[in-house]
Amino acid sequence: MENAAEFVVIGGGLAGCATAWHLARAGAEVLLLERDEINAAASGNNSGSIHAQIPVEPFLNQGEAWARRFAPTLRLMVAGIARWKELPAELGAPELEVSTKGGLVVARRAAELDMLSRKAAIERAEGLDVRLLGREELLSLAPYLARDTVGGAFCPIEGKANPLVAAHAFARAAQTAGARIRRRTAVTGLRRDGEAWEVATTAGVVRAHRVLNCAGAEAGKVAAWLGLDLPIEAHPIQVTVTERTAPIVPHLVYSAADRLSLKQTAQGSIVIGGGWPARLDAATGRAVVRMDQLAPNLRLAVEAVPAVARLRVVRSWAAVVNGTQDWRPLLGEIADGVFLCFFPWMGFTAGPHVARLVAELALGRRRRDDPEIAGFAPG
Ligand SMILES: Cc1cc2nc3c(=O)[nH]c(=O)nc-3n(C[C@H](O)[C@H](O)[C@H](O)COP(=O)(O)OP(=O)(O)OC[C@H]3O[C@@H](n4cnc5c(N)ncnc54)[C@H](O)[C@@H]3O)c2cc1C
Do both 251 and 334 map to the same domain? Predict the structure, then answer.
């Protein structure tokens, strides 16, 4: 293998491929190392929601004090949505299927509306456009919703994109700009050697001037090689997709009661997720679907959008999501010349934006005290 590179990027998910694109586009010499295949982990197995609202589950579990601490993260998500809209033209990739027709959190009880109103106050204080809708207004905007809804919250900028192709589009653009990509090459250690970093891999040692840790749920293990103990978690979760049907649902739909995200793809399938737990297979270490978690997830979907009840499920799958307890990202320099690009739980939404921020930091084009990034420095 080529034994030197100015920048080594660890990980070929959305974060790594987007970072490689921004580095290569700036004229830097980049080598991306992926232990498996490009887009084979969370980035290629997520449900493709582009979020802007504070998620319901941690709001219910961790409360308003948590939400206020999390709220600055919304700016990165909003900037992420703006980036998604630029990407089809920037990457020459219409197959990204970016659509932002808005997201609806649907309530079936008065107490849920009250919760949405408290959540919206925090979102609005961050500048997010969130509108509380009564039953009639909601049903006229989204006539496919169940009649027993009592109202909801509407955020017009939310939407969806195609996770099967996004990291590939960045990888292609990065390669065209000169980046080298090595698949099936795991990084196994990091060691400082004078002015450079020695990046140990399953295919030999690479010397790098700078290293970008974009290893997703494994980013904590990479940081541990530097003696750092970062609060990075890995959680297996699952998603279900139905057969195709005529267009019914233009929006991203959530439940105000529990974990649900529901959307219709450009091909007509309904994708149902929301972060229901899967499990890790003891023998392979791979995420596998938990059958006992399917019914409650699908029940929420049918309660929100009754037309889903007549569709057949085609497939459920599981993958490991990168998480943190407080849902806040970790972005910045973690050792001299080593940078972390880590956005938990909703890294599909924010990935294209935070990758640019961290690439600019690594290139020396953005200062560490830059207000967009400083509040998310690890440690
Ligand atoms: C089922 C599911 C549904 C989700 N739904 C959504 C959603 O709807 N909207 C949303 O915004 N987010 C969603 N997410 C979260 C989102 O997918 C992730 O936050 C995001 O993809 C993380 O991107 P990443 O590039 O950091 O990590 P990953 O995509 O996990 O990529 C990390 C890569 O690093 C590689 N790697 C790790 N260690 C090494 C090593 N030592 N050497 C070389 N390579 C290494 C891995 O093989 C992997 O390819 C979901 C996640 C899951 C699992």
Answer: no
